[in-house]
# Entry
Amino acid sequence: MSESAERAPMLEMRGIRKQYPGVLALDEVNFSLYAGEVHALVGENGAGKSTLMKILAGAERPDAGEVLLHGSPVRFGSPIEGIQAGISIIYQEFNLVPSMSVEENIFLGRQPTKGLGLVDWRTMRARATELLDRLESGIDPGALVETLSVAQQQMVEIAKAVSTDARVIAMDEPTATLTEREIEHLFTLIRRLKDEGKGIIYISHRLDEIDQMADRVTVFRDGRWVCTERKADLSRDEMIRRMVGREVTNQFPKRPVEPGEVVLEVKGLTRRGVIDDISFTVRAGEVVGLAGLVGAGRTEVARAVFGADPIDSGQVLIDGEPAGVKHPADAVKRRIGLATEDRKNQGLVLGMVVRENTTLANLAEVSSLGFVKRGQEAR
# Structure
């Protein structure tokens, strides 16, 4: 839907400014959204996109500026107030309770009730099933969230956002963990929501998705608004140039490298019911990709090589010799690293500072007699 089709935007954010200690996250930023449009918000990491969405949701308060919803100023003191006003945010970091079921997470704080204020479980199950079916997710509404894959948890977040019947829906990197099939289901849903007159804010680094879905594009750089254009008037190259502030002649230049000797060899790796007879080699100076649908076993292979999951049979060799990896500590000693799929829950200790997380896998290098040398660790 074009801007001319609406007399006024359903959402306006004017002169938004937000500063954290030592960081100006947003500097006099403007943004608008019309009913029935997908407005893409693009920029490099740290450009301020997620911060703007937190302000919109009521999770953060701006230092200056105003938010108008259907022409009226609003100021949310909490995310609950934002939801009540018809704004739903799908964050990059999931907001789910792992020990609760899918249906409980979808309607958390908004459970349908019956007499005496008791939860109407039958109605909640029916509504959750309907939402999950719309996404063609195949997820059991009674399953515990902690048993779901990262991709499935993303689908639950999307179902939760849609369940509020919001008029403004912001999606922050919603396809990061989804397969191509799941992405198509999501895009179908977005088109349906757009046809219903919803306003969709779509944040993604995947420019193919922006080309496919966006009606308008707003570019941020270093916390500042750069431009807002109709997608049809903004080429891919021009979008990138405005995002980074310079010409990018070759986005991913190919660097020829002659592969060296085999450094890692996996033979017949098997874990019953999970992976079966997996074999491959990795040579010095090359990148080997593992491709497949969600549930195909890619992550499980990586975890098995790293010693994070036990195997029933098979062998991992480094430089032609058995690696003897039974535990992640063994893998670290053999100079194998793993960047986990779920960084938040499996890759980091959130209660520790960046310095401590950075050195945690190799404390021997920064410690003596069992004590960490803080100066050496900081360097």
Observations:
- The mean pLDDT is 89.
